[in-house]
Specification:
By secondary structure, the protein is α/β, with parallel strands linked by helices. The chain folds into 2 domains: 65 residues, no CATH class; 183 residues, Rossmann fold (3-Layer(aba) Sandwich). It has 12 helices and 5 strands.
Length: 267
């Protein structure tokens, strides 16, 4: 084995022991660039360290995306801005910067079913994960089920601590399924714990005046809305269902022409 091969084998072993995969992938290319460009030692060291930093950031972002448990990956770039009504593009791009997470502000997306709320919520969650924030996505009914099961198994504190670690908790489809009083109280307690500590994003097809139908208690609902409305960005989507319009466009028949009343929209 040549002296150069021995050096490379030793170097790779050191990089593996020190767990520096980013440097291991790029150092040979950086060595060539440094030799060709006559880099100073300090410049070479900076580039080597930056390659490892990039690698770690990319791995963390990939892990955050996986841990979020999105039902599918939808990005802000995939939004059909022409079909999106009621919310401004500048506002969504402002939220996509994720500055609100550092201020523990909440986001409420309200509007008819099928007007893009879930897409926006997932898109904002993906942006947060890419910036290495911890994100947790769940549907409201599933979250309440988890809370009730944790309570019955005396694991509620553990579940709260796990959810508390999420910089952004996305609660999708609030209002699709009403809760019993116990479920509503558990959800209220969780969201109250996050108030001014971590950000929560909620999508709902209900007006605020209708939330009592879900929680079943006027005082509890008022208290929750008071907290959520204090430091929050409230966006309201409007218009017909995106999927209904797409379906009508594809078969060449409008909803009115088909003789059917426009269905409720589905996110």
């Amino acid at each position: 084995m040549s002296e150069a091969a021995i050096r490379e084998a030793v170097l790779n072993e050191h990089l593996q022991t020190l767990k520096l995969p980013g440097i291991a992938r790029e150092y040979q290319s950086l060595v060539r660039q440094a030799c060709d460009g006559g880099w100073a030692y300090e410049e070479f060291l900076r580039c080597v360290l930056e390659s490892e930093l990039r690698s770690r950031q990319e791995r963390t972002a990939a892990r955050r995306l996986q841990e979020a448990h999105f039902p599918d990956i939808k990005t802000m770039d995939q939004l059909d801005w022409k079909a999106l009504h009621g919310v401004s593009r500048p506002k969504l791009l402002e939220l996509a910067s994720c500055a609100y997470l550092s201020r523990a502000e909440d986001v409420i997306l309200a509007g008819p079913i099928g007007t893009g709320k879930s897409h926006i919520a997932i898109g904002l969650g993906v942006e947060a994960a890419r910036r290495r924030f911890r994100v947790s996505f769940t549907r409201a009914a599933e979250l309440v089920r988890m809370l009730l099961e944790a309570r019955d198994e005396r694991l509620l504190g553990r579940l709260h601590r796990r959810l508390e670690r999420a910089d952004l908790l996305i609660v999708d489809e609030l209002g699709f399924v009403p809760f019993d009083r116990a479920g509503g109280e558990l959800l209220f307690n969780l969201l109250s714990e996050r108030y001014e500590r971590r950000s929560t994003l909620i999508t709902t097809n209900l007006a605020f005046s209708e939330w009592v139908q879900v929680f079943g208690d006027a005082k509890l609902t008022t208290a929750l809305l008071d907290r959520l409305g204090h430091h929050s960005h409230i966006l309201t989507t409007r218009g017909p269902s995106y999927r209904s319009r797409n379906s009508a466009r594809q078969d060449g028949t409008s909803i009115l022409e088909s003789g059917r009343e426009e269905p409720h929209k589905i996110d």
